Amino acid sequence: MPIVWLLFFTFFVYPSKHDEENSIQSIKLILKTITTERKTNQEKLNHFRIDDCQDSKINWAQILTSHSQASIKFKFKEGCDLNGEIHPQFIKPFKINLDLRNLFHFTTFQSDNQISAILERHPILKLEITNGLLKGVNSEVKFNANYSIRIKSANEMTKAEYLEGEIIITEINSRKIKIIHKIK
Asked: Per-residue pLDDT for 179 more than 90?
């Protein structure tokens, strides 16, 4: 009888390693995409492309010091598999609702977010994501994440240094789990 339970948990309760890896890599790529200049991001997953998304340069130093709101716009087209707008603001919570295509079976990315910073010579931008949801036809991944970037230049995120962070997946396809993946 114990073998039957072991097989049941292996095949029906725990998500597959493939689901875990696709989820982690997808979330990691989207995090990097929304915090950096898309032209420099050469990572690709499946057939997902971001290399020709509208280049919305954001002056992160200005946002951090003046508390103004920025705007990052994505529109589906050849070379851009994201659609939607993000309006990041320092300290104030903001939502992300993006449509996706060509990223495995995922079609939507949603989250509640907040940006904070450690102000020093080269400020550290900290992005906290809660209530994250990566959704597709017949799949749903719930997660939280945090991510830190040191801004090397006041005007350019291309001179950013990725510090660290983590993705905490709490549920895959209605199965409660806890997977912690460190980001570097």
From this structure: yes
